[in-house]
Design a protein that fits this description.
Strand order of the largest sheet: 5-4-6-7-3-10-11-12-13
CATH topology of the largest domain: Rossmann fold
CATH class of the largest domain: Alpha Beta
Structural class: alpha/beta
Number of strands: 13
Radius of gyration: 22 Å
Oligomer: single chain
CATH architecture of the largest domain: 3-Layer(aba) Sandwich
Order of helices and strands: HHHHHHEHEEHEHHEHEHHEEEHEEEE
Number of domains: 2
Number of helices: 14
Distance between the termini: 81 Å
Largest sheet: 9 strands, mixed
Helix content: 40-55%
CATH superfamily of the largest domain: P-loop containing nucleotide triphosphate hydrolases
Amino acid sequence: MLKLSKTKDNIEPDDKTSIEDKKEEDFSNEGKSITDLPGVGTATADKLMGAGYGDLLSIAVASPGELMDATEIGETVARRIITRARELLNMGFESGDSLLERRKHVIKLPSGSKSVDNLLGGGFETGAITECFGEFGSGKTQIGHALSVNAIKSNPEGYAVYIDTENTFRPERIIQFAEGAGLDPKETLKHIKVARAYNSDHQMLLAEKIEDLIREQNLKVILIVIDSLTAHFRAEFIGRGTLSERQQKLNRHMHTLQRLSEKYNACVYVTNQVMARPDMFFGDPTQAIGGNIVAHASTFRIYLRKGKKGIRVARLIDSPNLPEGEATFNVETDGIKDVK
């Protein structure tokens, strides 16, 4: 019996047969699974699915290194698998009108304040990441609670996933917002899946496990909240010597969230801490944590600050299609409201 040594460049016998059988085959997108990919036999498929790569899209958007870590295949085989998955999904260029047609599936989640929603072109967009940063008490967490309730109101069959890194999630607040929105508080709480993250690695793992939650429990996740995105990273990586490692981990975390938002048409809402720039002598010295990594990965960026008499001010500072602008709102007992 022929035995192959277990190295990254070796292919299992069933995988090798798979390559030869499928080399000249004309693939079609319809009805295909990961076992139809060249180099993916039963054993490799089990490893891929165990690592969260259970469909063509998750493989198509993965990097060769990620597949190499998930299985025990070499880089050449990993690139061949990814290339074929992209071919099956026609992940090349498409016309602008096709993209416009796909964007009709985008949902705008309301915050409760028409002023804030108008600032964002109708609400918080699914298929995108929205970052809100500001000082403590500026309303970041309150918006996260309000979006969790309003997401369920917009789709009673939907779910919100809330990753809490600073122990700020309060079910009592959800009850208040649900009553204000005319929802059953108990049913609303049942549709919010909450996880407490205790360090940055745990936070990243929870984000990666959201896909398992969607697949295994067949949940329609409309909203993903990370509150706060950078708290653990800021506490664990101190000093300039650790900056590179911190940014690399943040980059990986943001790409996981991007993939979830695009693959499942979910709204990703992340809150971010701020710091004061000591070299800023004029203007507002407030700057978001995370640098360009978080800034570039976020589709929409909103700066929140406290105004007079308890009013909060939301300033849209970055968007791919909307102009900069400001909106004011109040945080009230039963929700986010417009300033009267």
